[in-house]
Design a protein that fits this description.
alpha+beta, 3-stranded antiparallel β-sheet, 4 helices, 7 strands, about 15% strand, globular, disordered C terminus
């Protein structure tokens, strides 16, 4: 009888242990500059604060050069396939879950595809950025679903490569309200 009780107690204990060892938290995949291309506009993805990615339920990682491209993919393909969306902190390039990040939008902010959105690790950092720039609209992850996603078509979308200048301009639409000139925001590191 003792062996039987010990077996049940052991199985119960192992079950509790296994329940505590659930799936590991999703992690972003490293960006390989010169290799990785945006899954929407097919531009090269720079390993910088503009890079974003989606981890799909099937384990694949999709990489994007601009948060707007990531949004476009999710809109066209449906979020039911998405496990996790990652963005990067503007100041540190640290990967963040998109739902945990804060965002700042202004049509004049320079981003690879002209969507003008930067992501930040927290609201206080985003607010500080708005103060420093003297412009920008603070947004939450939930606010992104109601955002217009217009592109500033006056920006150079070629990532500095003359062979790719203008690539990707076939996706997205130009909104007359987004035409505010090409005033680049300057990134500063403390």
């Amino acid at each position: 009888m003792k062996k039987w009780k010990m077996a049940i107690i052991s199985l119960f204990g192992m079950g509790l242990l296994l329940m505590g060892c659930g799936k590991e938290e999703a992690q972003p995949v490293a960006i390989q500059e010169g290799v990785d291309k945006c899954d929407v506009c097919h531009m090269m993805v720079a390993n910088d604060h503009n890079a974003t990615q989606i981890l799909l339920n099937d384990g694949r990682a999709l990489k994007f050069d601009d948060i707007g491209c990531m949004n476009e993919w999710a809109h066209q393909n449906g979020v039911e396939h998405v496990h996790t969306q990652f963005v990067r902190d503007y100041n540190t390039d640290e990967w963040l879950k998109a739902e945990d990040a804060s965002f700042v939008y202004d049509a004049s902010f320079s981003t690879p595809m002209g969507y003008g959105i930067h992501s930040f690790k927290d609201k206080a950092t985003a607010e500080k950025f708005v103060q420093e720039q003297g412009k920008g609209t603070l947004m939450t992850y939930a606010d992104l679903s109601n955002h217009g996603w217009a592109r500033n078509m006056t920006q150079n979308h070629g990532h500095g490569d003359a062979n790719h200048a203008g690539e990707g301009q076939q996706h997205g639409t130009q909104d007359s309200n987004s035409m505010h000139g090409n005033t680049d925001s300057q990134k500063t590191h403390n």
